Structures are given as C-alpha cells and as structure tokens.
C-alpha cells in the first residue's frame, strides 16, 4: 500500500508542475499586442491556433490527472485496516456455548435432582 501511495504522490507532483508550466506557456487574451512585435504564432510548429488547442487540451488532461491523484490520496489517507489477530487469533477467541446447551443442562439437572421412582415388582 505504501508503494501505491508513493506512486500517487509522484504523479500528483508531476501533474501539478505540468499544469503550472502549461498555464504559464499559454497566451492570455491580451497577447494580440505581443504579435505586433514579432512573436506571432503563425509560423509555429502547431500553426496559428494549433498551439492554443494543444496547450489547453494538455492542461485539461493534466488537471484531470491531478484531481484523480488527489482523490486517490484522500481515499488512501482515510483507509484504516482492521487490527490483525495473528495466525492463532481464531483459537484465542472465546467461543460461545450453543443456545441449546443451557436447556439440555437444565433438563439434566432437574432429572438428577428428582427422586427416583420406586421399582414396582411384578
């Protein structure tokens, strides 16, 4: 369980850093002024609007991964396993007497305390 928790923490940190980096790389609404000074995206690898779509989709995927890992860590943090009684735990637990045993012992006790009937000769 500890390995799974460590793996989730690593995934969460990497996805958080990825979301931060991708949000900082994206152009805001006021980026049109920057295009006038030679930073236009028309000659980029993804085309004029391809980089925005790629960055926003990747950001959404990383954000979903971040939320899923956070939910997983929350569920693992609240998990409390039952206390183990060990290999011999079943033999150490007191066993309750069956419900019919008290009735049978009461009948035996009353038969023992009752006087024996005299034998009648024939």
TrEMBL record:
Source organism superkingdom: Bacteria
Keyword Glycoprotein in annotation: no
Keywords of this entry: Cell membrane, Membrane, Protein transport, Translocation, Transmembrane, Transmembrane helix, Transport
Gene Ontology cellular component annotations, sorted alphabetically: plasma membrane
Major localization listed first in the record, in broad terms: membrane
Sequence intervals crossing the membrane: 54-76
Localization (cell): Cell membrane
UniProt record, GO biological process: intracellular protein transmembrane transport; protein secretion; protein transport by the Sec complex
Pfam family, one: SecG
GO molecular function term, any single one: protein-transporting ATPase activity
Leader sequence residues: none
Membrane topology label: Multi-pass membrane protein
Keyword Transmembrane among record annotations: yes
Function according to Swiss-Prot or TrEMBL: Involved in protein export. Participates in an early event of protein translocation.
Family according to the record: Belongs to the SecG family.
Protein name, UniProt field: Protein-export membrane protein SecG
Species the sequence originates in: Cupriavidus pauculus
Organism lineage string: Bacteria, Pseudomonadati, Pseudomonadota, Betaproteobacteria, Burkholderiales
């Amino acid at each position: 369980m500890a390995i799974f928790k460590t793996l989730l923490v690593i995934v969460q940190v990497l996805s958080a850093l990825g979301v931060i980096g991708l949000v900082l790389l994206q152009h805001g609404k006021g980026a049109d002024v920057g295009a006038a000074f030679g930073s236009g995206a028309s000659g980029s690898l993804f085309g004029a609007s391809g980089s925005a779509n790629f960055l926003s989709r990747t950001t959404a995927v990383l954000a979903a991964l971040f939320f899923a890992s956070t939910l997983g860590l929350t569920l693992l943090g609240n998990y409390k396993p039952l206390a183990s009684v060990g290999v011999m735990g079943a033999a150490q637990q007191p066993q309750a007497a069956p419900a019919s045993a008290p009735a049978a012992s009461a009948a035996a006790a009353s038969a023992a305390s009752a006087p024996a009937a005299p034998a009648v000769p024939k």
